Amino acid sequence: MITVFGEGRGFRVVWLLEEMGLPYRLRPVDLLAGVENDPDYLAINPAGFIPALQDGDATMVESIAIMEYLIARYGQDSRSATPLAPAPHDPAFPAYQQFLHLGEAGLAASIYFVLISRNLAPEAERDNWTAREALEIFKSRLGLVTGQLARSPYLAGERFTAADISVTYALELAQRSGSYTLGAPEKTYVARTSGRDAYKRAMETCQATKAWAARTAGP
Ligand SMILES: N[C@@H](CCC(=O)N[C@@H](CS)C(=O)NCC(=O)O)C(=O)O
Asked: What's the predicted TM-score (pTM) here?
């Protein structure tokens, strides 16, 4: 049985597992309660961040690497055959690979530091140079997403892929944290990707994410 530890970016992994129809369980990790109080999780990821994945003898961190692992390991399985990643010879592959990683390295990683600065830093340090710069970096990478969405409904072309899971998570993180207001093309895109049944099932599994989404939903 595959175990996903923690929500946050773990939502990406749960969504992917739902898309692939693979059985799994989610083991919550409460970072706000202090990961130092969760020795069982620290045994899985001594660095203490989420998510992590355990699959038999394999233990992994990094949400994008975990998604790549699951697609490579189970994507060819007849029970879970997945169109979520184009093959390397497919013309969609370069855009897929780029946006899969840009969703974390360019978007989520940047907006995460805006989010924690604005919400968790001591009052006098909230509007600091680094947080402002991180927001500019987020916006510059978002321009690539917006440009691609002007050409095609999904980031790798006509078909939904794991790159859309990666980027949708980042856009929702920005929106829900109040760090950035998405424009109309991005909102339309997120409505398209989050309308999928697998997304809705993932949301039912990820109750903390569901509660956060409800708290931050607009009127
Ligand atoms: N690049 C990592 C980022 C992981 C990450 O920063 N997770 C956040 C929550 S979503 C976290 O655990 N933050 C606390 C920490 O880094 O100690 C991934 O994609 O999994």
From this structure: 0.96
Residues forming beta bridges with residue 157, ordered by sequence position: 154
Ligand 1 pocket check: which of 50, 62, 176 to mutate, most ligand atoms within 8 Å of Cβ? 50
Closest CA to 5 of 72, 59, 70, 57: 59
With beta carbons less than 8 A apart as the criterion, state whether 1 and 23 touch.
yes
pLDDT one-digit tens code per residue, 31-70: 999 999 999 999 999 999 999 999 999 999 999 999 999 9
C-alpha 133/C-alpha 114 separation (Å) is 9
- Residues forming a β-bridge with 61: 52
Q: How far, in Å, is the centroid of ligand 1 from the Cα of 108?
A: 10
Dist CA 41 CA 29 (whole Å) = 7
Round to the nearest angstrom and report the end-to-end CA distance of the chain. Answer: 40
